[in-house]
Specification:
The protein is mainly alpha-helical and 136 residues long. It has helices spanning 2-17, 20-29, 33-41, 46-62, 68-79, 85-98, 112-131; strands at 101-104, 107-110.
Length: 136
């Protein structure tokens, strides 16, 4: 129990510092941390999740950092959410401070933790969409 608490604290510190190498190392050494990430991820604001997902989608499509305009476009097309560029930029600054994304080449890339938020959100959305399909 004590060891898990210490590992969670180390993990939270690594996330706050944006230390991707340490985060990956901790998750590799302690696979149960993925459950901890999933639990704490539920507290994350839905806009944070959507923007992380939009950045991830645009990173994959463009194989380059996602610009504010790319994120706004993805939010509108993929999630039917209309946010202005200043709103998206404000959330992105917060995400960068939390260590979920990194600014690069006039755009943003996901960090390891941001990638987890993106994947969890997209997987949940896909599950909900598949669950709403009529069964055969």
């Amino acid at each position: 129990m004590w060891k898990k608490r210490r590992i969670k604290k180390d993990f939270d510190t690594a996330v706050a510092e944006g230390n991707d190498a340490r985060i990956e190392q901790l998750v590799k050494e302690n696979p149960w941390l993925q459950d901890y990430v999933d639990e704490s991820g539920d507290e994350t604001d839905v806009n944070v999740k959507r923007i992380c997902a939009a950045i991830g989608i645009m990173e994959d499509e463009r194989t380059a950092p996602a610009t504010i305009d790319d994120i706004v476009e993805s939010l509108a097309q993929d999630f039917k959410v209309n946010m202005s560029p200043p709103q998206v930029e404000s959330v992105c600054m917060d995400l960068e401070n939390k260590g979920y994304i990194k600014a690069q080449d006039a755009g943003y890339l996901l960090t390891v933790e941001g990638g987890r938020i993106c994947d969890n959100y997209l997987n949940k959305q896909a599950g909900e969409m598949l669950g709403s399909l009529p069964s055969e």
